[in-house]
Amino acid sequence: MKLTLSAEDKAFQEEVRDFLNEHLSSDLRKAGRLMTSVFADFESAMAWQRILHEQKGWAAPSWPKFWGGTDWSVTRHYLFAVECAAAEAPRLLPMGLEMCGPCLIGKGTEAQKQHYLPRMLTGEDFWCQGYSEPQSGSDLASLKCRAE
Question: Which of these, 101, 15, 13, lies nearest to 64 by C-alpha position?
């Protein structure tokens, strides 16, 4: 695939590269290399999240801009992901930023959003999702529902 970038997207890509080169320490790069799945170790992932949030507001790029997202185009999301992978950046922990945060944005009350979303971005609050059902465990596809 040949991707043709606009001058603005090329400038963005260079901005991302420069930022990664400046802010990714050797320890954070090592954490990125040592990832065994989609998760980096907690301390490294949270340190990287704080840097992204505090320096650029890039911790949750898919969130609406009003709640701390970036309002990037699909191309810029792609460029950011490619550059982070090439630089061996640790992956951010997805439960809060990619699962619980969007759920709160879509279905939470205004008070919940005001209280929890900023704390989720800074890492002050760490979120996860837990589910386990009788005869299904965490295999939610196997759930059976009935009403009595």
Answer: 101
pLDDT tens-place string over residues 8-51? 999 999 999 999 999 999 999 999 998 877 677 889 999 999 99
Q: Left if phi > 0, otherwise alpha if psi is -120 to 50, otherwise beta: which for 123?
A: left
pTM of the entire predicted model: 0.84
Q: Which of 98, 8, 31, 15 is nearest to 60 (CA)?
A: 98
Q: What is the sign, positive or negative, of the torsion defined by CA atoms of 20, 24, 26, 29? A: negative
